[in-house]
Every structure is written in C-alpha cells, then in structure tokens.
Amino acid sequence: MTAAHGAAPASAGAGSETAEPLVWLNGELTPLSEARIPVLDRGFIFGDGIYEVVPVYVLAVGEGEARVRVPFRIEHHLARLKRSLEKVGIANPFDEAGWRALVARLIEANEAVGALARDGHANVYVQVTRGVAPRGHAFPAAATPTVFAMVNPLKLPADAQREHGVRCVTAEDKRWLNCDIKSTSLLGNVLMAQHAVENDAFETIQLRDGWLTEASSSNVWVVKGGALFAPPRSNRILEGIRYGLIEELAEACGVRFEAREVAGAELREADEILVTSATKEVLAVVSLDGKPVGDGKPGPVYAALYAAYQCAKQREAQLQAQALHARATELQEVEK
Ligand code: PLP
Hints:
Layout (H helix, E strand, L loop, with lengths): L21 E4 L2 E4 L10 H5 L2 E13 L4 E6 L2 H15 L7 H17 L9 E8 L16 E8 L5 H6 L1 E7 L14 H12 L4 E6 L2 E5 L3 E6 L2 E4 L10 H13 L3 E3 L4 H5 L3 E6 L3 E8 L2 E2 L7 H36 L1
Parallel strand pairs: 7-8, 7-14, 11-12
Antiparallel strand pairs: 1-2, 1-6, 3-4, 3-5, 5-6, 8-9, 10-11, 10-13, 13-14, 14-15
Helix pairs in contact: 6-8
C-alpha cells in the first residue's frame, strides 16, 4: 500500500503554527486551553447542537498577485447553518453579517497572535448548542445557545492522494433518519470513520437497505458511461456544500448529472467513484472493499471536476477581491 491510500490525509497548505490558538466562546476570544463550558451544556450531555465547517483559502489574484483570504461559499455554509438550527429549534444567535464578522474576527485574531499562518489555508469550525440547563430530554424552557468557533489549518489531501486516489470500504448505514441536519450527534459517523481506519481505508461509504447514501464525512458520486450520479437531496444524506457546486461544475464541464438513487451493484460496477467535502474537495476512490474501481486509477470525470473546482476557488477569490476593492473605493469617496 502506498502513502496515497492511507487513512489520514497529509497536510498541505498548513503553515508552521506554534502560538496557542484563540477560540470564540460566547462572545469572547479565549486561548484554547482556557476555554470552558459547563458540564450541563446540552451539547455535552445530549449532543444537542449543530455545527458547520467552512474552508478558508489564501489565494493570489490579479496582476500584482495580491493574496486574499476566501471563505469559500460561505453564504451556502451560513444558509445550511440556519437550516440546521431551524430544524432542531435552536434560535440562530447571529444573522449572516454577524456570522461573517465572527469568522473574520477569529481569523484576524489568530493571525495576529501567530496561531494561523498568513499564507495558510484554514478551516473555520462553528458550533451552536441549545445551551446549559438542568438535565432533561425535552427542550428547557429557557436556555441561551452556546456559541463556539475555532480556526485550524486546513489539511487538504496530499499530492499522492490526488494523483493515485484513495481506498474506501462499505458498511450498512445505521444512522438516524435526519442526516440532512448537520448535528453534533455524530456517533454513527464516528463509528464509520473508525471502521475505515481499522480497514486501512480512507473513508467508509454507507449503504442503507442496499442503496448508496454517503460516506462518514463526505458525499459520494458515481460515474458510469461518462455520466455522473448521486443520491438525491433527502433526509438520508447531508447536503454537502459541494453537492450544489459539483452539480454546477458538471454542467460547466459538459458532464451529464442525474440525482437519483444508486444501487449497491451500480456502486460496485462504477467506472469512477468520487467523494467530496470541505476538506477533501473532490477526491477519486480507486478501490472499494479491496476491488479496483474501473481501471483502478483516478478517471477523466474526476480530473475534469478537480480542475473545475480549482477554477471555482480562483473565481471566488477574484470576486471577493473585486468586492473588497469596490468597498475601499467607496470608503475613499465618502472620506473625500
Ligand atoms: N456528508 C457528511 C456526513 C459530512 O459530514 C460532510 C462533511 O463533513 C459531507 C457530507 C460533505 O459536506 P461539505 O461538502 O459541506 O463539506
């Protein structure tokens, strides 16, 4: 087995951080080692909370190759955060502008103390729980949501994993039927991630009653005869922010996409299998349960979508740089 197939994605894009990170906890920036939550927080007692993970790239734009930090597709992440909160009946502590400001402040603060390399990609983790209350299953009459956020170096897949693809295994999906909620109750997903580690695989791809759902922390895509298929959005999968993105990119690349149920047999006979997530972007699966997928190499649809994904990042960087420039010009005009 080569390093490309190992379970742990190697670091790329991470800086040489040494200083202690600052985390956001209920309105305060606190050193990570000092951040505390009460033991009666319902996130701890019941897993009663939701979360988000936003990739934040550092990309060079324009002629001067100025670098910008790009919270990639953040509006989609914040919309999903809002949806998850609504589905579990937790009040959203911020509007979109408030969340954006929190993310920007967290990044700036960590850069300032040297906990985040200025040229390093990052991922921002945000968690909201129902708050602290005496233990009792039903919602407490009054509780203030706990808001926690941290930023970590973004560990993208290693070059070897990009080049050679990764091995996956399958297992029965035994999770609850609200997988569309990005809940912190992740025990089912944790067990599936551990199943992959114990089987020397990168991910576990799950099937429910013989039909493909998703992997422990990724959406799964199947290619057959040049067309791309994925299970439709439903309560049986988390709609990854890359779900809509891959739909757009497939169309731009001239790859036909159909959202439809995928049987286990189709998964096993696929020409290509892809997994997507914020930290994996899009990655080729070259072996499933020890058998090669297609010819056992990353295929042409993977190559096209991976290239298109990199262009989408660059496009978003340009748009954000233009917006920043426009805003700066506007401020100068006001000051004149
Ligand atoms: N499905 C599950 C269960 C996940 O945990 C994730 C990401 O963590 C995804 C799908 C992919 O979502 P996204 O593309 O937003 O990272």
